[in-house]
Give the backbone structure.
Amino acid sequence: MNPKEELKQIFANRTPVDVAIEISGYTGHRTTLIDELTELEASSLLAVHNPSVNLEREHNALQEVLIKKEWRSKILAKAENLKIKKPNSFFEFNEWMHQKSKFKKHLNAHSIKELKELHQQLCAFGSNNAKSAKNAFTKSWWNESSKKINLN
């Protein structure tokens, strides 16, 4: 449905004077008629009176931000466990992201789908290191043995 027609339905139970005053104030006293509104003005005035569309968009945007934050947190925790990222230092992790990660970009530039794939890459990296640690004199074997020395 056309935004102007929706506005007419919203203003149907109001007096013409009230409608004219509201439209005049909204358009900066350019017009008092719904039919003389531009499409942009009609859409934005409709959004003022029908906020459910805007609220839904804001809700989806906030939900996406929270989901991204959760995935970034998982990725950073996994990277610290794998010794790719040092605590309180992002330099080595950023270098790793730009050189060896799947998407070759910094962590904040990823979409939700890309973050999931990056987490999967880190999980595979960890399992490959665990398998490699079983072979003597590999880098992961040395790292694993240095952890076990401290246990004696």
In short: The radius of gyration is 28 Å. The mean pLDDT is 89. The chain has two domains: 3-50, 67-149.
